[in-house]
């Protein structure tokens, strides 16, 4: 009924990330006045039966059982990569070389080498590319960035970021793919640590220059998972080795002179998704906790912290939704992401965060691993 | 691609409530395993052009400019009423008489007489009917109800409910339809007071027996609205009379012996959508604030209040969505509502809240108005 | 060692209130630069042995077993009344007639008649008099008053006050004196309801004009207390009637046009001393909860609420104590009270709250009781 | 009037710490049933006039202008050291050698060497000794320790501690003694970092084994202070070098296998005295923030965090004070401290924290400084 140009989307993977991306593609047009109308064209997955069931439920028009076929299709202009990190590079590079636009889940890749190859491919390709650090699109996080840009924080002295979860506190929780280095690249570090590194760099507009780090695997062996899928996986009697970190702590210096601390853990009992960041500057401070995602706390000039309910029409992204006080949820961060991606494609601008931003995060993660392996020595992040 | 039986939905009205209902119909099938697949068949509105634009954006397949046509259509089995309260009775009764299922926005009607007629029509009709007190489907509110049912609160002593907003604090805010008695029935009382009365009765499983009330209109005259639509309406130089309450306070007794207090206001500066309810019982207490909608606070046996992040798989509705700590937003309450409505239709059970529940709330509102008019005298709610 | 003029204090009663008043008299001179140095001269109590033990522990130089003797003594210039309400009038009037200054615990009296007699005696007497609504001297409450005076709240629309406790939820909690009308005058209403009425009038600078009220006694009979003293009293097998309210709810109108609601209860399970008040005005809002007594929340112009940590040197009373962020406790409200009382005596000004203020509160309490007895009818507070 | 054995106290220094210690000595006997009655015998300070004024205000019976005289006096059995860290060793050792009991403000000393000498002197002396890490006596912190001891936290995985202040954010704040290395030993590290190191070790019952650290001085030069005293000092036109850290961050490993992070800063704009600690264990988690000092948050088995109002009679120290919900303030931590010290003296037990505990904290601080100076290398804390 609309006369907007449509743009075909092909998505690879339909687990947790695939479900939330689907909701974004499905909803974005109803709320934002977009230059392009996304069409949920194809879903790719290995099992024909399960992919078809997922497509039916999630609203994809067609399926492929080989992502290479999806990349080749003419009705696909955007490739959305929702697979584990070990396949990101191959799919993304193929899609870029096929002239597609690519939006890729984070972390960009499991290694710096792969991330570099992807970034180079993105630089050469005609298509647009974006790495899906969705927390940048939490309205409160975007508002925090705006406050920094407006000078309301002043010279930044401290960044204090943690990402706390507790879903593997139980030693009998099985050895799912996120606990295996070959599939996941790293543990808490790459999965959730990557988010707070990106958020810290995004909000402050500064790079993390170097780190001193500790990592730990508290539970070394776990029951093998009977299926490798999601959080609900159940364990078998056999055990295998946990090959990733359970927790990573690091401190470092930002390019603007701030001291920064980071902690990513899956062993913070009672903390479910506490992605928190606080920024202290010479003029003001900001604090955020994703468990209360519709709030941003701001202290001006040493005064008390104001609890800003980030649901006002002039707050980032919020005007498209509901009246003040009617909060948004997790999935909206993805809706905002694809909205910005579609606009960048239509306008010919460079989407943010770019693959280069993803590579930079990857290099921080690598520096963390090198520091942790080398007696916590302060380790510079490569350029 | 699915072989589920589809069921056609026709929606009347496409303003704020229409937008959020659309998102519910659009999303529900992707998250819940439903017995019926809703099809967004028709949208009705008075202006052809604007209705078509809304339908295109919100995803409705066809439009009608007369709701009577919508009610007559064979491809519509569910009529979803999202208009102001003055038209609810006429549309709902017509739809029920035409054999449709009806889901109707709250308050059920602008008068008790209309609400009675609707309830009688619902009782005689073959279709299912439901009044859309969406806050019952906030997972935290549903969990509160579960706690009461499980005896974790004990004998209830106190109910303390407020619904605080501030969108008309400015005396220059225009005279939109919600401030006109002929269209809206009442002011804060019917718009938001109705929600807390229903929530109190739902969570406690008790009826409010009688009330003693005060109402007030702080700003008696406002600029006429240049368009009668939404919150963003702008005012003209001419002024008109505000014919509804700005705020309503009432205290009363519940059928189980509890004392209850209620306050609905649009003049609580800084409170955006603070729909709050606290229940104190002999064994425990519960507290909820919609501005932090993913949290329920529970005190057991006089101990400290526990902040339950209502995002666990075993919490009501939540298992269908994201992992723990990844919160939901306002719109999900509607998605849960239509999910339950579709299941009731498929299973032949009676949806809740029923039109009778809506009538009961209406009778409370009327008792409030009578008490306020009669020197706050304690006024029994009619049966 | 100091050359300040000393002023002798005689205190009647040494239970809970006596202990906290003693700490105030003992500490005030060390923190505030006072015009008069209080000397803890005499403590009066009925039992010689117990009074002597209390005096030794609390730091009083001498004891009397008859308060009349205390009133007569030349080394007593200030009489501090810490007994239950039924003896306030007699002691206060005698002390005033003897030319003493009098500070009297709240409620001023158990009846309006007694309160009137006390107020008349105070008007005629040469001594200064004060009723000990200590919550006025919580720094955050005093700051709230200052904000209202400075116009930062604007025209006040709403006052929302509750005082929630839970110490008699257990039906086996014994029938202590606070649950007996002849000794306590009323229950939650006079004990804690009086505080929120005074706080509401103090912060807003407005009087409560009339009320519509409900009261309830949830537990009608309780075990007789084996000793009538404190909260720790234990019950016997015999039972007696509870003759006071367990909870009181009332709504009303303030002299400036605001709507106000009040709730005082000892049955709010999990709430220990939640004396809360929120004020909404045309320019801003204030919120306070005594359970977080070092905080005041302020919203300006509809913005987010700022959590003001009321520990800055320029906040009321705070400069005398510790650096920012080092909070005060319950007892400090009394220290501030006697500080202001001593200054008023030295400067010849009228201390606040006066006996007339106490009488006004008493009249509100009486209106509440009359309204509750008369079908919640709106009942004007007598002048 | 009491027949308790009195014990004479002599205090050295009457600035901030002296004022709060005085309040403790003055109040402790009125609330706790002590085996010994402290007598505030002598106050020592350099200026006779100012010391006499302080003694008059704070309630000390006599003064000395040389602490050596105070140490020699027969009416002094306890020496309370409230001077800056550079004089702790000399005074404490002299007092111990004179057979006195010694309570010494933290940090124990400015250097490890001094702290070692003090610890050796304490070990040989007949008197009792204690270092005044007062935060151990916050009831909520003591309750946290109790929870760990009772196994309610389980195997500890994470310790996360920060101490955030903002009183020197302004570059024009003058160069007070706390910013001079020769007087203060270090900056935020020794002043407030010492507290969180001690609290972490106290609550967990584990030692910090090694650290990797960063320190920073954001403002290198400041106006010279016109008087060296307190926070209110004003600056002159001349400038001097800041010779201590403004902030210190460190991560490390605890003896039980936990990862720990610490941050001490005076540049966290808007944070006044945010001494925060969170512990995550295999069975539960604890969280505390001194800015809300009457609260402890506890999550059991991954459930929501319960806000425990630490004002119940069975909570540590609290039974001596007020009813539930009536909070305590900063100064009470000192009152609890001297209460425990007096009991240890009377009972012949060893007070805690001991000088050895103070030395252990000092060694952590030294390891932090060595790590920071050596490229953040992981540095073991000496035994």
Question: What order do the helices and strands come in, and which of them pair?
Answer:
The structure is a homotetramer of 383-residue chains.
Chain A (H helix, E strand, L loop, with lengths): L5 E7 L3 H16 L5 E8 L3 H11 L3 E3 L2 H6 L5 E4 L6 H10 L3 E5 L6 H13 L4 E4 L6 H11 L6 E9 L16 H4 L3 H17 L3 E9 L4 E5 L9 E7 L5 E8 L4 E7 L8 E8 L2 E6 L5 E6 L4 E5 L22 H16 L7 H19 L5 E2 L3
Parallel strand pairs in A: 1-2, 1-4, 2-3, 4-5, 5-6, 7-12
Antiparallel strand pairs in A: 7-13, 8-11, 8-17, 9-10, 11-12, 13-14, 14-15, 15-16
Helix pairs in contact in A: 1-9, 4-5, 5-10, 6-8, 8-10
Description:
Four copies of one chain form a homotetramer. Chain A has 383 residues and is an alpha/beta fold. Chain A folds into two domains: 6-135, NAD(P)-binding Rossmann-like Domain (Rossmann fold, 3-Layer(aba) Sandwich); 139-380, 2-Layer Sandwich (Dihydrodipicolinate Reductase, domain 2). The first copy, chain A, has ten helices and 17 strands. The first copy, chain A, has a nine-stranded mixed β-sheet. In chain A, strands 3-2-1-4-5-6 form a six-stranded parallel β-sheet, with helices on both faces. In chain A, helix 5 (112-124) runs antiparallel to helix 10 (355-373). The radius of gyration of chain A is 20 Å and the shape is globular. The model of chain A has no long low-confidence stretch (mean pLDDT 95).
């Amino acid at each position: 009924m609309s006369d907007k140009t449509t743009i075909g989307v092909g998505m690879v993977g339909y687990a947790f990330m695939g479900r939330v991306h689907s909701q974004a593609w499905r909803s974005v047009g109803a709320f934002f006045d977009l230059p392009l109308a996304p069409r949920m064209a194809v879903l790719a997955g290995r099992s024909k039966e399960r992919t078809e069931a997922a497509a039916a439920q999630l609203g994809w028009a067609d399926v492929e059982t080989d992502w290479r076929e999806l990349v080749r299709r003419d009705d696909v202009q955007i490739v959305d990569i929702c697979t584990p990190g070990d396949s990101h590079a191959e799919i993304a590079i193929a899609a870029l070389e096929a002239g597609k636009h690519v939006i890729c889940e984070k972390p960009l890749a499991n290694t710096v080498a792969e991330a570099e190859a992807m970034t180079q491919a993105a630089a050469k390709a005609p298509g647009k590319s974006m790495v899906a650090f969705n927390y940048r699109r939490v309205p409160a996080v975007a508002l925090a960035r705006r406050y920094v840009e407006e000078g309301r924080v002043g010279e930044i002295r401290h960044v204090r970021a943690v990402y706390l979860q507790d879903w593997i506190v139980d030693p009998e929780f099985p050895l799912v793919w996120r606990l295996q280095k070959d599939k996941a690249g790293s543990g808490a570090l790459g999965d959730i640590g990557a988010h707070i590194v990106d958020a810290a760099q995004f909000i402050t507009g500064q790079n993390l220059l170097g780190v001193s780090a500790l990592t730990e695997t508290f539970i070394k062996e776990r029951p093998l998972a009977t299926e490798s899928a999601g959080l609900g996986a159940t364990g078998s009697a056999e055990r295998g080795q946990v090959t990733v970190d359970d927790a990573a702590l690091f401190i470092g210096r930002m390019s603007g002179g701030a001291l920064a601390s980071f902690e990513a853990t899956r062993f913070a009992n009672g903390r479910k998704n506490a992605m928190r960041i606080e920024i202290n500057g010479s003029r003001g401070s900001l604090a955020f906790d994703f468990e209360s995602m519709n709030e941003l706390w701001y202290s001006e000039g040493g005064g008390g912290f104001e609890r800003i309910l980030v649901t006002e029409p002039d707050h980032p992204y919020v005007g498209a939704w509901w009246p003040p006080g009617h909060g948004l949820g997790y999935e909206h961060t993805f809706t905002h992401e694809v909205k910005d991606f579609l606009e960048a494609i239509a306008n010919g601008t460079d989407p943010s965060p770019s693959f280069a931003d993803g590579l930079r995060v990857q290099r921080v993660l690598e520096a963390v691993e090198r520091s942790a392996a080398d007696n916590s020595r302060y380790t510079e992040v490569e350029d």
